[in-house]
Predict the structure.
Amino acid sequence: MTQTPDTQISELSHKHLLGLVDYSDKEIELILATARQFREVLYRPIRRVPTLRGTTVVNLFYEASTRTRISFELAEKRLSADTVNFSASGSSVSKGESLKDTAQNIEAMQLDMVVVRHKSPGAAHFLTQCVPSAVINAGDGAHEHPTQALLDLLTMSDKFETFRGLNVSIIGDIMHSRVARSNVYGLTTLGANVTLCGPSTLMPVELDRLVDRGGVRITHSLDEALEGCDVAMALRIQLERQGSNRLPSLREYHELFGIKMSHLEAHPDLLIMHPGPVNRGVELESKVVDHERALILDQVTNGVAVRMAVLFLLSGTRAQPDG
């Protein structure tokens, strides 16, 4: 997927990446194009470029994370940035220190960029009012997870020539999913059609606002969601975020909304994605996870490239991506 000359831009109009809701199609395309350049670095014998040498990035993670945190750390190291890692556990947060005080104390150590993951929606936006650094949202509650959506978009762009008219179904726990929201914003901005599918008890209260963006429809039938679908993105059932039991059982959920081998056989061109971690036998049948049409590991690889691109574009440097 390539840009035509009249759609190319060379820089973002944003200082921060808080979400994709206000990013234009040109800005998203710029991030994806830059990520493709950086992806080549990941396959070189020496997988490091001096692009962000002298830049210091702090990773503020107030929630447990494996893929996102490692991906950001690796992206920073691949760009030769200096990295400082912060975890709420074992820090002054356990003594009552606020997010604002933590950020400002770390900022006083002369940092340039902040990557933050927090359980509270709006935490990344709040940080922009506390520190002058560029802020990247690595997931804030059930609000947005923009870099996950960007890596999903990059993965899809490797398989399809355009997003215009692409049919993507997002299936599962929409209510608690920041991934779903960011993907809705990114996909519809680029011209894709999005179907949100799941139990009515796991649909968000702001459903009408998402539908009003255009290009979004709702169904509670998995068969309907997969009809004419190009990419099915299964979401993890987030039991840790659910204040009450919204599902009769995980077994029943799998029967009604789990993607199985029978679905792949019925839809021979269907591609499968999942932001991880996968609950095998719940969102996806185990054989589906390992199937050649599952792009889950491609998503992981693309996550490093996308985060390299975002760090580079928000750093303000005018160096070339390849150093």
